[in-house]
Amino acid sequence: MEERHKKILQRNRTNLVRDLDPSKLYDGLLEKGVFTQDMIDEIKSAGIRRDQARQLVIDLETRGSRAFPLFLECLQETGQHSLAELLQDGAPPIQLQPATPTQVVRPVLQPIPVSSPMDVDKRIKDEVPLYPVPRPTTTPSPSPEREHIRPRPQGRPRRDSIQCYKMDASPCGHCLIINNVEFESRSDLSNRKGSNIDCDKLESRFKALNFIVEVKTNLKQRQIKHELSALCKMDHSQYDCCVVIMLSHGTEVSHSRFPGAVYGVDGLHVPVQNITNYLNGKNCPSLQGKPKLFFIQACGGGEKDTGFEVSPDEVQPSIGGADADDQTDAIPMSSSSDSLSMSDEPDARATLPTPSDILVSYSTFPGYVSWRDTQAGSWYVEILDRILEENAATDDLGTMLMMVNHEVSQNSAKGIYKQMPGSFNFLRKLLYFQSQA
């Protein structure tokens, strides 16, 4: 498909997902050769109408240069004129050229000579070698609707086989936010100014995404475990997803498989590996096969990243600056931590279990601090909230987290220190949140 047609589809994806009726298009798209029956079956299995519409638009971009005009033709034929006009608005007129019939060249058949036994000796002596008649190629030329479709390398998953998680339950699921702000004096951990800003943003955002949001504030280690256990014991059968958000101090701990821990306000920590294990398929059967999402705004250790020099083309204006309000949420583990003013604090590193359908998004790379502005909240949450607001209607979660990674990486604390978020993705399908009506 031409790049300009891809951009038209991407620019209008929200309207297509909202208004397109894919069930009316399947026969026409199959008849015109845009999709095979297997591809249409995959799209149908994506879920409800909106999910099927989204998957159809995504797959359409891979179907060659004639896919876009044939799609418009199908829209007109099925009475979806407003969508056809929307896609044609601003685009140059498209002239469909009829497919040129392929001329089939028949091979020339040579008769087999027949000789009597009496002529054998003579034939051997006088035999003139026969050279085979060249066989013309019978390989058909590609049909116009298949041009520019590159063969898929062996061993790579087909894009059209990727499905989307079912995310149409209302409400979509539970979202637990644990926001630790004020720490006991005996914990030797400072209070996390600005964390309430993060909490308010995420509470509003996930309510807008149709989740049941519950916020718990200033929990001790035992209370964190209790809330996670209660979430694990709930019946999630009628829901499609579950979200846990941890806003706290964090640190590195000794571990057998996964590093990182989040602090309770009493100074005792809970390994992130244990946090995720509460909701895995073994411990929470009603969430088996459903996405479990964990967002960790906390430090991954005490190291502070000064970054490295890049070409000017890679540099973008930083959101953060030489602001004394930049803080982190980790406690130092060794003498490797730089000496900064007491207003600079770090946030925790996350871990993940092995079961499928789990994604853990970290605010920072393991071993490093996570920065938080006391006035605007943490870099990670501020950008995550904005990316979800602007892109949840059109992009999957993995794509949006990549956007978050890029934007956070452009920030600088005190004009020196950098931060790099990341995620461990064990999801098996694309995840699209419910978009607002």
Automatic annotation (TrEMBL):
Kindly indicate whether the keyword Hydrolase belongs to this entry.
yes
- SMART domains in UniProt: CARD (SM00114), CASc (SM00115)
The record's listing under InterPro entries reads: CARD, CARD_CASP9, Caspase-like_dom_sf, Caspase_cys_AS, Caspase_his_AS, DEATH-like_dom_sf, Pept_C14, Pept_C14_caspase
UniProt lists compositionally biased (Basic and acidic residues) regions at: 119-128
GO MF assignments: cysteine-type endopeptidase activity
Annotated stretches, region: Disordered: 116-159, 307-353
Q: Which domain of life is it from?
A: Eukaryota
Task: Fetch the Pfam families from UniProt.
Answer: CARD (PF00619), Peptidase_C14 (PF00656)
> Per the database record, which ranges form the Caspase family p10 domain?
348-435
| Keyword annotations | Apoptosis, Hydrolase, Protease, Thiol protease, Zymogen
Q: Sorted alphabetically, which PANTHER family does this protein's record hold?
A: CASPASE RECRUITMENT DOMAIN-CONTAINING PROTEIN 18, CASPASE-3
Q: Which family does it belong to?
A: Belongs to the peptidase C14A family.
The identity of this protein, by name, is Caspase-9
Q: What is the lineage of its organism?
A: Eukaryota, Metazoa, Chordata, Craniata, Vertebrata
